[in-house]
Design goal:
Blueprint (H helix, E strand, L loop, with lengths): L1 H23 L5 E2 L1 H8 L6 E4 L3 H5 L6 E3 L7 H5 L7 E5 L4 H12 L4 E5 L2 H7 L8
Parallel strand pairs: 1-5, 2-3, 2-4, 4-5
Length: about 130
């Protein structure tokens, strides 16, 4: 009887850990640089959101990008001025901050969010135009 309860307990613990891992994994919509160029280069209705720091932004950014720093304590307040129904392509250096920003923005009610796969690093690798001040 004791052996059975131990096995049952281990099964429950394993299931709980699997559930936590699965719920932590999210499906973030991504777009490659080439697909972005094909789909959005001339589309002025989208918002291009750079979530890097202002210093990173000054080193170069995508055309038409606006900068709202993911690390800024007011990030939520700053993105709240954007229409939640707009299509927004979010990027950072490599993708992690953008994914975090997308998660927060989804929780705020934003509907059409996409992460630029590989961020500005991938953009630069493809010899794409980088805007500098």
């Amino acid at each position: 009887m004791r052996f059975f309860n131990l096995n049952k307990m281990l099964a429950l613990v394993a299931t709980a850990f699997c559930g936590c891992t699965l719920s932590a994994q999210r499906n973030v919509s991504e777009i490659s640089v080439s697909d972005y160029k094909n789909k959005y280069t001339n589309d002025t209705t989208i918002v291009v959101l750079d979530v890097r720091t202002p210093d990173e932004f000054k080193t170069g950014h995508l055309p038409r990008a606006i900068n709202i720093d993911w690390y800024d304590a007011d990030f939520g307040k700053q993105v709240a001025v954007i229409d939640t129904s707009r299509t927004i392509v979010v990027y950072c250096r490599s993708g992690k901050r953008a994914a975090n920003a997308i998660e927060k923005m989804e929780n705020m009610g934003f509907k059409h969010l996409t992460n630029l796969k590989g961020g500005i690093q991938e953009w630069i690798k493809t010899d794409s135009v980088v805007v500098t001040p």
